[in-house]
Amino acid sequence: MRTFLVVALGLTCALQALAADMPPKPVRLGLCAACHGETGMAQIPGAPNLAGQKLDYLRKALKDYRDGSRDVPLMRAAIGPVSDADLDQLARWYSAQTPPPQAAGQP
């Protein structure tokens, strides 16, 4: 019985630590999720998966779309006048998501 309690306590602590690492869901996630999925897995053909991308890459890419450095009208319209804080929340959210494992035999 003691072993069971020790294991249960350990799992509880581990799950709480994992949950603490997950950033809060961004308020502006809705429009992004329409194409990229709430967990960063694309919902439409041609939209890239964002789950697990590097935080700095996502942060820069979002700023570049917003500021027009990356000339993709759809992304610029979707992002609109978003603050740096909102962009940071989105980047943190998607970088913290776990992409599904690659199927065996896929490049």
UniProtKB/TrEMBL annotation:
InterPro entries documented for this protein: Cyt_c-like_dom (IPR009056), Cyt_c-like_dom_sf (IPR036909), Cytochrome_c_Oxidase_Subunit (IPR050597)
Domain Cytochrome c: 19-98
A GO molecular-function annotation: heme binding
UniProt cross-references to SUPFAM superfamilies, sorted A to Z: Cytochrome c
Keyword Nuclease: no
Pfam families: Cytochrome_CBB3
Keywords: Electron transport, Heme, Iron, Metal-binding, Signal, Transport
Span of the signal peptide: 1-19
PANTHER family, alphabetized: CBB3-TYPE CYTOCHROME C OXIDASE SUBUNIT FIXP, CYTOCHROME C4
Name of the protein in its database record: C-type cytochrome
Organism: Dyella dinghuensis
